[in-house]
């Protein structure tokens, strides 16, 4: 029996991304503000690093196959271009409304609108993975940890407005697409995924820490909330927690024998911003509890949009 657990995990992570983009991280006070912050800047933040880890895992035996990696990268790059065009009206609309500057508009056109940064970051990370394929295991481990630490510290300094006088660092932060980019995010997490065989036995020894690590994540996020830190793209606990979640899901017995549609998780991920926009047009934002009601509606609409796009993709295979 085929183990569909990883396919299910990807679908769950796609719905977590929707929650990440739905629940506000500011403008709400009290217990509702804390809960919303814990959701949008805490629990849901495991989704994207886990996506990258899974991608790295599936590429781990293909790093010497230049033709395969090039084909893989070209497919994702095509998705990036197609979906950039699909979201171009949305991008222009918010630019016209003055939601972001000329510079931000240019950067969004380069790195990807909203969630599409993930696609371009994956392509660039694949290129680096091929370049360092012959590095020693120790060098790869050091590189992944070093980049994650540098990215985290850089993010903290920027988010806490501690280096606001250093225009060069602020400019670099914007130009590379914040720390949520290919270098400090996508590449190290994909690299960790490619090294699965080397760390799975170590993770096995600490698998009982899964729940404590979730609690530690919530504590870390609560600390940021109390100190007024803006939404965090990456958290200290996330790399290890992603590895544990991945290990648990992979090693668990199959949840179901049913086949998970291969484009479901990607489709929901790509379509959900328009689902959010549509629902917001009919149900304007009012408060935290309104988002609790809107979230399942948005998820259902994202599924419907994926279903339509998947039908089109069967004739024009460039959308999923």
What portion of the residues fall into strands of 2 or more residues? under 5%
Number of strands: 0
Radius of gyration: 19 Å
**Form type:** globular
Question: How many helices does DSSP assign?
Answer: 15
Biggest pleated sheet = none
> What low-confidence regions span 5 or more consecutive residues with pLDDT below 50?
none
Q: Tell me the helix content.
A: over 70%
Mean pLDDT: 90
Structural class: mainly alpha
| SSE ordering | HHHHHHHHHHHHHHH
Give the termini distance in whole angstroms: 26 Å
Indicate the multimeric state. single chain
Task: Give a structural overview.
This protein is an all-alpha fold. The chain has helices spanning 5-22, 30-40, 47-59, 66-86, 88-96, 102-111, 117-131, 137-159, 167-175, 182-194, 196-205, 210-226, 238-251, 264-282, 288-313. The longest helix has 26 residues, at 288-313. The protein is globular and about 50 Å long. The model has no long low-confidence stretch (mean pLDDT 90).
Question: Which descriptors would you attach to this protein?
Answer:
single chain, 320 residues, mainly alpha, 15 helices, 0% strand
List the helices and strands and how they pair.
Elements: H1 5-22, H2 30-40, H3 47-59, H4 66-86, H5 88-96, H6 102-111, H7 117-131, H8 137-159, H9 167-175, H10 182-194, H11 196-205, H12 210-226, H13 238-251, H14 264-282, H15 288-313
Helix pairs in contact: 1-3, 1-14, 1-15, 3-10, 3-13, 4-7, 7-10, 8-10, 12-13, 14-15
């Amino acid at each position: 029996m085929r183990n569909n657990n990883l396919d299910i995990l990807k679908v769950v992570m796609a719905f977590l991304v929707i929650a990440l983009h739905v629940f506000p991280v500011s403008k709400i006070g009290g217990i509702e503000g804390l809960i919303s912050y814990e959701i949008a800047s805490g629990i849901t933040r495991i989704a994207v690093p886990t996506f990258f880890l899974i991608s790295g895992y599936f590429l781990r035996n293909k790093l010497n196959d230049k033709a395969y990696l090039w084909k893989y990268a070209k497919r994702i790059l095509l998705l990036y271009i197609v979906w950039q065009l699909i979201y171009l009206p949305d991008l222009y609309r918010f630019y016209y409304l003055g939601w972001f500057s000329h510079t931000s508009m240019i950067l969004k056109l380069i790195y990807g609108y909203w969630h599409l940064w993930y696609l371009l970051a994956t392509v660039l990370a694949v290129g680096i993975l091929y370049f360092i394929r012959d590095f020693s295991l120790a060098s790869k481990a050091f590189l992944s940890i070093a980049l994650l630490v540098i990215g985290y510290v850089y993010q903290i300094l920027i988010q806490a407005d501690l280096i606001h006088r250093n225009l060069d660092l602020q400019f670099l932060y914007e130009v590379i697409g914040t720390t949520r980019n290919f270098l400090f995010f996508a590449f190290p997490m994909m690299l960790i995924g490619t090294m699965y065989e080397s760390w799975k036995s170590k993770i096995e020894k600490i698998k009982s820490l899964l729940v404590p690590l979730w609690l530690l994540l919530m504590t870390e996020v609560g600390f940021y909330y109390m100190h007024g830190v803006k939404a965090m793209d990456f958290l200290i606990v996330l790399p290890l927690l992603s590895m544990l979640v991945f290990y648990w899901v992979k090693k668990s017995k199959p949840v179901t024998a049913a086949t998970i549609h291969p484009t479901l998780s990607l489709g929901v991920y790509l379509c959900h911003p328009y689902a959010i926009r549509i629902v917001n047009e009919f149900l304007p934002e009012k408060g935290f509890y309104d988002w609790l009601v809107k979230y399942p509606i948005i998820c259902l609409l994202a599924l419907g949009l994926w279903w339509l796009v998947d039908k089109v993709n069967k004739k024009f295979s460039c959308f999923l």
